[in-house]
């Protein structure tokens, strides 16, 4: 193993990650399982550098993905992981360096080129078309889909493919009816359907429950062990790495920071390689608050899913200033619709919402009047304009008010100054305030939206959905600290999260949502885990 490991980092991380599972296998066992000539190709990155203008996102990084192994790429937010894999996939041209496929230097100019070498990528966010069925989405990825489709033949072929694939999904299901775990399986199936045998996965389990994640990774692990696939996975989750991965390569600030075999490493070793010198995140303790007056009152709220079926069926919810109310549950049980109704992106079909005792329809004017702020899930898609700059996105809430506007004139200096300040205070890693926000790493987009929403002078109600999606553990601590600080200041916080541990750690009180209804309510201290599990599973 290369890469230095300071002891303090190791201590800190071993405390944070108490539950780790031992590796299922190691690479030598894996390779022994198959005839070498049947294995996926070897992929080697040699001294790859990627610059965006003057900014070097990846510098002289080398990595070898050996056939029939499960390899993880680790690093903090902004370390260069996505950039590196996008270069491998031909999505970005590398500035310098080489990619070898089975020891031959290859030019890969596009993901389609990458497919020629059996390389397929599953991105952090879903790329399936929601209005289509599973079968239609699979056909859509083929480069040779005929102009006129013989459905009977194609469907029979798809059924044959599905029968032999590691995951099964009903081909007739519309995507809008699939839970996150099934969508992620479909993303992987798309690559298998293209006959790709080297899968590159960018945080594939970020939107999955631990059970869904273990199922997906377990099935992939079986394919790897059988020598049918190699996997290179970007991940922040040590539990999954310890359970499913053979080998890790670590990046820090765009540079190679270490490599090793999981069987020889502890979580602390890997975290220390990621962090370099110790930077202990600040834990924010909850202070005594006195929640009395309701800030948000939801009475009998109903709303529909995109397909017109009921998503929320008569929800009642009260949140007072100075408390965090958590909503736990498996994705697809109404959480998204609830957040969308409260942030004005979906009309309710029944019930009433009051904020500060006044009827609230979640218009922009009402959100402004009542000081309601929201961090929705997938903030790049739901709370940003990707091609606009970081500064412009940071000003989305305030650009029409002084000091950022004078009448109808925008004061660009004020917008930029405010952005520079927020970039500093919230440690947003961006080449400049003028960089399009869509170019930032996932974690930094998350920070930027949180900075915008939390920097308001006065906040009454803060609605957050999966706020640490895809973030490294340092950033998780930071954002959790910000939420607790807001609560301590008297903000009413609604925390919707598919991560039960997050709900239990932060909430003062929480509910489980299942099929659009609250089916369990407790404080974290009094929570009964067996019942929560049953309720989350819909029993
Ligand atoms: N197209 C681009 N133009 C300019 N800078 C970019 C572009 N893409 C990425 N960057 C910058 O490169 C750096 C590395 O980003 P990258 O997305 O590779 O990080 P990451 O390790 O995948 O982070 P995360 O875990 O948050 O997803 C970041 O500072 C990011 O802002």
Automatic annotation (TrEMBL):
InterPro entries in alphabetical order: AAA+_ATPase, ABC_carbohydrate_import_ATPase, ABC_transporter-like_ATP-bd, ABC_transporter-like_CS, P-loop_NTPase
UniProt key word Transferase: no
Record GO terms (molecular function): ATP binding; ATP hydrolysis activity
Swiss-Prot/TrEMBL keywords: ATP-binding, Nucleotide-binding
Pfam family, one: ABC_tran
ABC transporter domain location: 43-278, 296-534
SMART domains from the UniProt entry: AAA
Span list, region Disordered: 1-39
Compositional bias annotation for Polar residues: 1-37
PANTHER family found in the cross-reference section: CARBOHYDRATE TRANSPORT ATP-BINDING PROTEIN MG119-RELATED, GUANOSINE IMPORT ATP-BINDING PROTEIN NUPO
Protein name according to UniProt: ABC transporter ATP-binding protein
Upper classification of the organism: Bacteria, Bacillati, Cyanobacteriota, Cyanophyceae, Pseudanabaenales
């Amino acid at each position: 193993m290369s890469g230095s490991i300071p002891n303090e980092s190791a201590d800190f991380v071993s405390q944070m990650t108490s539950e780790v599972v031992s590796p299922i296998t190691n690479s030598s066992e894996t390779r022994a399982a198959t005839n070498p000539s049947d294995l996926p190709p070897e992929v080697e990155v040699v001294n790859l550098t990627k610059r965006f203008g003057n900014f070097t996102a990846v510098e002289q990084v080398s990595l070898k993905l050996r056939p029939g192994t499960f390899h993880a790429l680790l690093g903090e937010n902004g370390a260069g992981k996505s950039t590196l894999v996008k270069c491998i996939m031909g999505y970005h041209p590398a500035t310098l360096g080489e990619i070898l496929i089975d020891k031959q230097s290859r030019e890969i100019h596009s993901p389609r080129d990458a497919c020629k070498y059996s390389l397929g990528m599953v991105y952090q966010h879903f790329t399936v078309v929601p209005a289509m069925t599973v079968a239609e989405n699979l056909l859509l990825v083929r480069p040779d889909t005929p102009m006129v489709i013989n459905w009977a033949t194609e469907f029979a072929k798809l059924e044959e493919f599905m029968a032999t694939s590691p995951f099964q999904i009903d081909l007739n299901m519309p995507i809008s009816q699939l839970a996150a775990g099934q969508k992620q399986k479909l993303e992987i199936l798309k690559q298998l359907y293209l006959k790709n045998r080297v899968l590159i996965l960018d945080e594939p389990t970020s939107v999955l429950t631990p059970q869904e994640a273990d199922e997906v990774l377990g099935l992939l692990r079986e394919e790897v062990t059988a020598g049918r696939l190699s996997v290179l996975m970007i991940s922040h989750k040590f539990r999954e790495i310890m359970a499913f991965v053979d080998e890790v390569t670590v990046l820090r600030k765009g540079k190679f920071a270490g490599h090793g075999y999981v069987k020889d490493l502890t979580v602390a070793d890997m975290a220390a390689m990621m962090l370099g010198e110790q930077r202990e995140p600040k834990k924010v303790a909850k202070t005594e608050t006195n929640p009395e007056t309701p800030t948000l009152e939801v009475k009998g709220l109903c709303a529909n899913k995109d397909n017109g079926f009921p998503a929320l069926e008569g929800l009642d919810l009260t949140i007072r200033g100075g408390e965090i109310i958590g909503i736990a549950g498996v994705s697809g049980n109404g959480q998204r619709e609830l957040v969308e109704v409260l942030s004005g992106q979906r009309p309710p079909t029944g019930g009433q919402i009051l904020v500060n005792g006044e009827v609230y329809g979640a218009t922009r004017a009402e959100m402004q009047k009542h000081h309601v702020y929201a961090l929705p899930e997938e903030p790049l898609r739901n709370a940003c304009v990707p091609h606009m700059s970081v500064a412009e996105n940071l000003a989305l809430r305030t650009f029409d008010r002084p000091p950022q506007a004078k009448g109808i004139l925008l004061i660009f200096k004020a917008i930029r100054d405010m952005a520079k300040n927020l970039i500093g205070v919230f440690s947003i890693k961006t080449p400049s305030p003028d960089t399009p926000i869509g170019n930032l790493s996932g974690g930094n987009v998350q920070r930027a939206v949180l900075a915008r929403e939390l920097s308001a002078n006065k906040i009454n109600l803060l609605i957050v959905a999966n706020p640490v999606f895809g973030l490294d553990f340092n950033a998780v601590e930071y954002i959790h600290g910000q939420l607790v600080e807001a609560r301590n200041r008297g903000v009413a916080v609604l925390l919707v999260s598919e991560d039960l541990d997050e709900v239990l750690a932060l909430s003062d009180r929480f509910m489980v949502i299942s099929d659009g209804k609250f089916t369990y309510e407790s404080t974290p201290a009094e929570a009964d885990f067996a019942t929560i599990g049953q309720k989350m599973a819909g029993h």
